[in-house]
Amino acid sequence: MSENYKFNQNEKCEYFPCHKVNDVKEFNCLFCYCPLYALKDKCGGNFKYNNGIKDCSDCTITHSKNGYDHVMSKISKIIEIGSKID
User: Fold this and answer.
1) Domains of the chain, residue spans
2) pTM for the full model?
3) Under a CB-based contact definition with an 8 Å cutoff, are residues 63 and 29 in contact?
């Protein structure tokens, strides 16, 4: 079974690749903006806080070959956050 939906690459993007990586051919642009940002320290990524702002510039989890699977493993937590009524 094909799983091409898990990988997308946009070499024409002026920021490609937006992170330093060892192998550009495996850089996944599917999640250009990380959908797990709202999970704060529970996202599972390599981030740090700079002046109280989450800095994900050193994280490539969502841009890796297994990025889709990582995001899907945590997406229920994002849905939970989004479905809370203020």
Assistant:
1) 4-82
2) 0.85
3) yes
